[in-house]
Specification:
Strand 3 and strand 4 form a beta hairpin. The longest helix has 19 residues. The chain has 279 residues and is α/β, with parallel strands linked by helices. The N terminus is likely disordered. The protein has a five-stranded mixed beta sheet, with helices on both faces. Strands 1-2 form a two-stranded antiparallel ribbon. The two termini are 18 Å apart. It is 42% helix and 15% strand.
Length: 279
């Protein structure tokens, strides 16, 4: 993991030493960004001791990469490094497969937005009733009919380098795009709904929270998605302010809990990926 100065993993009959520090996070040992390099070839690079972008560039010869192709990849890697140093994370969202965006999480953590929405129903025609954006310890909650609009949502997301959601790729982001086009920045997206099963955490967000021992405040501990819809209708039809307040708290908990979950899942994904190199 990133807090240890040294770690080893087995590669066949020998053991390879790799360094893990703040400068050696997963993204800087990622070579999937280069054309023609998939996960198999990337693991072979790691096993040969090529453990960072810098080491890739320093090596004149690399197993499995021809002498004429190596300079081309070096130039591509220079573009990658330059884009990373300039914070152009949208560039990486295009280069990396969506299922691998998690690799950027730890280095971008200070500029991550954790996002969750509520809607007035569960069908395809449902509209957004509430959006919460959690960022650097603060949570902004926007409510339909009050302060939820394209400008306020765009302001809450401005400057983010990465989005973290739970099932956002299938639900939250398409629904936002339908109602508020071009409001969500085209940055890397770490979707925990798809990442969790890879580390043995199956089920919805609340089921995963239970597996990890998280416990919500008592007032929202047993609120479900269906009940969230009911709470909105209570507010809309009867002006029940307690219902609105409870819905707001529920939405905020959904959003805030993404942060510790993202950290746990990242750690397990990184550990599992590097350990598989020793198989």
């Amino acid at each position: 993991m990133d807090i240890n100065p040294l770690h080893t993993f087995a590669a066949g009959s020998k053991r390879i030493l790799y360094r893990c520090s703040a400068e050696w996070t997963m993204i800087k040992r990622t070579f999937l960004l280069l054309p023609g390099i998939g996960q198999v070839k990337e693991r072979r690079l790691w096993e040969s001791g090529v453990l960072s972008w810098e080491e890739f560039s320093e090596r004149k010869c690399l197993e499995g990469i021809s002498a004429c192709r190596k300079p081309l990849l070096d130039r591509e890697l220079e573009l990658v490094q330059d884009s990373w140093e300039k914070g152009r994370t949208e560039y990486f969202s295009r280069l990396l497969p969506s299922g691998q965006h998690w690799r950027m999480y730890r280095r971008l953590k200070e500029d991550v937005c954790y996002l969750d929405i509520e809607t007035d129903g569960l069908g395809p025609g449902a509209v957004i009733t509430m959006v919460s954006v959690h960022r650097n310890g603060d949570t902004v909650t926007l409510t339909r009919g009050m302060d939820l609009n394209a400008e306020s949502l765009g302001s809450a997301l401005r400057g983010t380098k990465m989005l973290v959601t739970f099932n956002g790729s299938s639900f939250d982001l398409p629904v936002i795009e339908r109602e508020f086009p071009f409001t969500v920045p085209r940055v890397p997206h770490y979707d925990l709904r798809h990442a969790c099963p890879k580390v043995g955490l199956r089920g919805g967000l609340k089921q995963v929270e239970v597996l990890l021992g998280y416990r919500r405040p008592q007032e929202v501990e047993y609120v479900t998605g269906e009940e969230a819809v009911y709470l909105w209708h209570l507010w809309q039809k009867k002006g029940n302010e307690n219902a609105l307040k409870l819905l707001r708290r529920y939405n905020q908990e959904d959003t805030r809990n993404l942060e510790p979950l993202a950290e746990v899942v990242y750690g397990r994904l990184e550990k599992g990926l590097l350990e598989r190199c020793g198989q």
